[in-house]
Amino acid sequence: MIEIKNVSFTYPDFKGEKTLQNVNLNFPKGEFISLIGKSGSGKSTLFKLLTTQFQPDAGQILFDGRPIQLGDVGYMPQKDLLLPWATILENVRLSGKLDKQHPVSKEKALEWLDKAGLKDYAYSLPKDLSGGMRQRAAFVRTILANKPVLLLDEPFGALDSFTQYEMQQWLLSLWQELNKTIVFITHNIDEAVLLSNRVFLLQNWHNGDDTQIKEWHIDLPRPRPKDIRYHAQFIEYKQALEVAIHE
């Protein structure tokens, strides 16, 4: 479990105006959690704290009761960041190249590329793949880093709506297989409701007050039916979030 306790953070050039103020959140093991909120509400900043890129000014972030470490989380940004000169197979094995104690075998990498529908592209360069295929490759790279928590920062935001739908379904099936904790940033309310066990709305008033956080438990069946977006309860969750985010 990740516990975020009374965390505050200010960027050095913000003249004391806090980006996050007294944030308290829990991410239980195995849950799919989405963070939503307007730009500047602190979602990406929270990810930078979770990856230990920055340290909180106050408070603490714990993983299973101890201070969180870089090795506890895998991070996937919106851009795939695949190395253009390396094959897809070489790209997804990159974590093993960087961490010599946890090498990624060729066999395991090919197994995961097969699950992602990319085995036939193992020796292709990133330029030869579509946007959705590149994102799948980037996600496989994140999985093969073998971290218990995955942080996904708007990974599907740049994709067309049809490819987004395919990627959402693929991600759900993998999450159910992996039993990992996923924390997912999105500006797409529909996507947040579709994927999540819980959704947190972050609102930062930038006036010295605490960061406001509202929570929704998404009590929808799993696996999610393909027509779930048309269910009355799904629509109710979506409408409630839309109202709250514009308050």
Summarize the structure.
It is built from eight helices and ten strands. The chain has 247 residues and is of the alpha/beta class. The protein has a six-stranded mixed β-sheet, sandwiched between helices.
Provide structural commentary.
- By secondary structure, the chain is an alpha/beta fold.
- The protein is built from eight helices and ten strands.
- The chain has one domain: Rossmann fold (3-Layer(aba) Sandwich), CATH 3.40.50.
- It has helices at residues 43-50, 88-92, 94-98, 106-115, 131-144, 161-178, 189-195, 232-245; strands at residues 2-9, 20-27, 32-36, 58-63, 66-67, 73-76, 149-153, 181-185, 198-203, 212-217.
- Strands 6-7-8-3-9-10 form a six-stranded mixed beta sheet, sandwiched between helices.
- The mean pLDDT is 90.
